[in-house]
């Protein structure tokens, strides 16, 4: 027995046992959502009502088949068992929906922040362009200057010719 203790270190935890049960959480979550959705439908209520009426009818009127006499203890046990499983499955489905809603909300917030940043950037660029346009000659200004030069051009040409004739070559 002392030999077994010398091979195992006491300052480290034991390795996990191989008796652990693993299951796919995503598959179980999808299954619970499907059940929760079905429990909230009119189809479930209809078939549950048919089942309860058949159960009670057989136990009241079929004398040879009375497996659950009048207080219907077995039926109450079945309802209790169904409720004990349905409630956690519904809560699990709601938690999964909350997780999806939280992720969607975070994505919406990020998208809204990006849109706001883009809008702010475009507003700054537009303001910069408006300032730059105020300093640059506009089309109307250039047209006016060209029209003024056209009007002055004949007078400038005649002055240039007079200068040429005056200057000796």
Automatic annotation (TrEMBL):
Q: Does the record's keyword annotation contain Transmembrane?
A: yes
Q: Which domain of life is it from?
A: Bacteria
Q: Which residues form a coiled coil?
A: 139-166
Upper classification of the source organism reads: Bacteria, Bacillati, Actinomycetota, Actinomycetes, Pseudonocardiales
Keywords, A to Z, come to:
Coiled coil, Membrane, Transmembrane, Transmembrane helix
The keyword ATP-binding appears for this protein: no
Its transmembrane ranges are 35-58, 70-93
InterPro entries per record: DUF1003
Name under which the protein is recorded: DUF1003 domain-containing protein
Q: Where is the signal peptide?
A: none
